[in-house]
Amino acid sequence: MFHMKQHKAPRMAVAALTLSLLLGGCVSFGAKPPQQLLSLSPAQRVTAGTAANVAQAPSLVVADPEAPKILDTVRVPVRMSPTSIAYVTKVQWSDTPRHLFQGLLAETIAASGTRIVLDPGQYTGVPGQRLMGALVDFGIDEQSHSAIVTYDAILANPGGTILARQRFSAQQPLSGKIGPETVGGPLNAAANKVAADVAAWLPTVAQP
């Protein structure tokens, strides 16, 4: 299946081939057309017909989190070691993880009823708190055979003053070999756990 002359093969190519074979062909360093598209589904949703009243709860804009280049992609990363990353083949996200997570986080916070969540594209000029942050992890860890989502949250007031910051992380085990059928569910569960923890944290932050 693989045709290469050993005496001309660079060490990196040999290492990549060995890694791919060890993982049963489920992980690759090259991009291929996906057979599946993944998305995130909120475990908590706003009930249809629920009225939002800014007099009852403060407003909040949830911004897209920042993300490093290895996460700012539609591919699903697999951390093989502290210094090496591969990607799951035959599957991609329907959008970048940071944008998908922003939508899930906004929906989860809105469902909690502690904030009136506004669309950042439509209400950027409305006074209110702003939730910013960064995705630190959003992928698969090969060593622990689990999905890990880590989000650094930063809550700021309308003037831009930081009120609080905190890191949230969740880990969910994979039920089988790393592949397109096993990564989506655990990543969705871990993302929902982080979003729920952020929603529970917001009311504990002292108001200025």
Automatic annotation (TrEMBL):
InterPro entries, per the entry: ABC_trans_aux
Domain ABC-type transport auxiliary lipoprotein component stretches: 40-199
PROSITE patterns reported in the protein's UniProt record: PROKAR_LIPOPROTEIN
Superkingdom classification of source: Bacteria
Protein name: ABC transporter
Organism: Sphingobium cloacae
